[in-house]
Structures are given as structure tokens and as C-alpha cells.
Design brief:
about 240 residues, 3-stranded antiparallel β-sheet, alpha+beta
Amino acid sequence: MSQPVLLNFEQHGALRLSDATDFTSHRTENFVPVVFQEFYGLATEFPLVFVRNSKTADFVPGAMMGLKKGVNLYCQTSEWQPTFIPSGFTISPLSVRRLEANSDKADIAIDEQSPLLSETVGEPLYDSAGLATDYLKRRIDHVVRVTQQSIQAVSLCRFLAEKKLFTSRALQLQHTQNSPKYEVDGVFVIDEEALEKLNNEEFQELRTRGLLPLIYSHLASLHQIGRLTRLQYEADLAEIGA
């Protein structure tokens, strides 16, 4: 895996960037981190759940895109079927990079090995005067916004955890009686009983923070587990047939 470097005109002035349409680079990610602002769009296709960061123990929201660890059912081919694209799929090859450890100062980095970069195809990053093009400015704004939303998601999850609203759920999924059974652990969801037991002040705080619609969207998205189980069953049949 290449190490992103700070974006600058001297090194990257001749580069052009294309928008991603092929997401097969995510083919091994059966859990895709997302931000709360995407819940409404994602909930109609994917189960939205929470997992714990193994390093920080923070809860992270994400979309389940496969039942097998290391297999994203939606990214095995270059054709993306769903109508909504997770923002995490659209920021590459740019990223936000801290200039120093434990510092709030950051800059934009770029993965020079990305297949989206070229000197002949795509939108230029800089004009002849060495200034960022409008296209690059939009891409940078997008990366910064998604990064800020990701940080906000961790903060909101900490608040939900403080209210003891997360509960673990071990999933045992099987499309038909004779099809393979899948067990998915490490998944957390909002505990509806705990939600109902909140007092008026706590419930109002959820409303004030804008979390209630997101929680209901998350809970509704869990009905998509059936869709995911069917897709896994179809993928298993195709693998057997091949």
C-alpha cells in the first residue's frame, strides 16, 4: 500500500484526476464505515450497524455489504448497482493528513499510485499559474467535509454510548433451510427498550442533537438484512456453479 504525500503543485502540477466509478478496490470490505449524514440514502439498501474500533473502543457506524468477512457483495465487479454511493468511496485519492502528531493542523495528501490519476485523462488539478482548479477545490471541500463528518460521527456515538443505547447483536443468518448459515458477531444496534426508557429530558436531548431521525433510519435499515442474506445466497450459488 502506497503512502500518501502532501499535495503540492511542484510534484503534482501535471496530474489529472478522474471521478471513481469502479469500486472494486473495496471488494474485501464487508463492513464500510459511513457518516450519519448518509443514513437516509443508505438505509434503503444496506443494514446500518455499529462496530467498535479495536484501537480506541469507540463505536463507528457502517453499512453491512456482505456476510462473509473479507467479501463485499456489491464491489466484486466494476458495476455499482445501488443508487447511493458511500462518501468513503468517493474521497480517494485525496485524504486529510495531520502535519504533526497530536496537532489540529492538517493538510491534503494524495495517493500518487492511485489509478484515478493520470497526466492525460481526467480533470486537471492545477492551472498554468499553479493555482488549484475549481475541480480540485470541490474535491478538497468534499474530503474535508467527509473527514469532519467522520469525526462528528465518533462524537455522536460516544454520546449514545453514554446513554447506554447500544446493545450487541449476534446475527445468525440463513436464506433457506438448506443454504449455508452465517454468523456475524461484533455488531451493535440501538437498543429500542433502552430508548423507550429514557426520561423526557434525555429524549429531548436526542431530538435537539438531531439524532432521533438517524436512530429511526438505522432501525428501519435493519430490515435490509434479509436482502443481504439473499444476495449472499445468490453469490454462493454462483460460486458453486462456477
